Amino acid sequence: NAGVTQTPKFQVLKTGQSMTLQCAQDMNHEYMSWYRQDPGMGLRLIHYSVGAGITDQGEVPNGYNVSRSTTEDFPLRLLSAAPSQTSVYFCASSYSAAPGGYTFGSGTRLTVV
Amino acid sequence: AQKITQTQPGMFVQEKEAVTLDCTYDTSDQSYGLFWYKQPSSGEMIFLIYQGSYDEQNATEGRYSLNFQKARKSTNLVISASQLGDSAMYFCAMREMNTGFQKLVFGTGTRLLVSP
């Protein structure tokens, strides 16, 4: 019962570096999302996917890319990291038809210096 | 556009007492789901309780219950018999079933501190 697995748990980047945050789920969920959490602002949606090959932008997509080549994986790419991207990132997944909520990964704490 | 408002940045309660965390929402969708998540200091997001917009009964899950007032667009979380382990951030969230089913929209959260 792995659920939603995020890697890495912690990461420090220099401004301008690129990296990929990994997210995998083993529950055969159609929907997957990436959120960022900043102090005082709750969780904000970055990108989401409703199935393999289908992605769309959320509330704060700038500076991030996503792709969904398989049902299981939904990586988040930072092409050129900026200090404003210092945050905690959560990946989450859900069934498409069930009214229940999302299952969240344990989060990635990213610091950009 | 859907919106969630949590007006209490912090709440204090003594152990074994009940506490109510407030949440109001705004949506034009007639069908939606309301959620509460707990985030302890370790950082993970833990699903607590769910209320559907067409549910006639207030949702309950153990010591957690919702005071769902649809006309007022509010869904307050009631934690009964508070425990020290309830100290955490609590987030209210909404999912629109027709227009935004793939998205969860969150409030800014309420930090609950339970004292002995």
Low-confidence stretches of chain B: none
Unreliable residue runs of chain A: none
Integer-rounded radius of gyration of chain B: 14 Å
End-to-end distance of chain B: 41 Å
Mean pLDDT of chain B: 93
- Strand tally of chain B: 12
**Range of strand content of chain B:** over 45%
Helix run count of chain B: 0
Shape label of chain A = globular
Quickly give the structural class of chain A: mainly beta
Determine the mean pLDDT of chain A. 93
Order of helices and strands of chain A: EEEEEEEEEEE
The topology string of helices and strands of chain B comes to: EEEEEEEEEEEE
**So how many helices of chain A?**
0
Radius of gyration of chain A: 13 Å
Report how far apart the termini of chain A are: 36 Å
Kindly state the percentage of residues in helix of chain B: under 10%
Topology:
The complex is a heterodimer of chains A (about 110) and B (about 120).
Chain A (H helix, E strand, L loop, with lengths): L3 E4 L2 E4 L5 E7 L5 E7 L5 E9 L2 E4 L6 E3 L9 E3 L8 E8 L8 E2 L3 E5 L1
Parallel strand pairs in A: 2-11
Antiparallel strand pairs in A: 1-3, 3-8, 4-5, 4-9, 5-6, 7-8, 9-10, 9-11
Chain B lengths: L2 E3 L4 E5 L4 E3 L2 E3 L5 E8 L6 E7 L7 E2 L2 E6 L4 E6 L8 E9 L8 E2 L3 E6 L1
Parallel strand pairs in B: 2-12
Antiparallel strand pairs in B: 1-4, 3-9, 5-6, 5-10, 7-8, 8-9, 10-11, 10-12
How does this structure look, described?
The complex is a heterodimer of chains A (113) and B (116). Chain A has 113 residues and is mostly beta strands. Chain A is built from no helices and eleven strands. The radius of gyration of chain A is 13 Å and the shape is globular. Helices cover 0% and strands 52% of the residues of chain B. In chain B, the strands form three sheets. In chain B, strands 2, 5, 6, 10, 11 and 12 form a six-stranded mixed sheet that branches. Chain B has a four-stranded antiparallel sheet with strand order 3-9-8-7, with no helix packed on it. Chain B is globular, with a radius of gyration of 14 Å. The N and C termini of chain B lie far apart (41 Å).
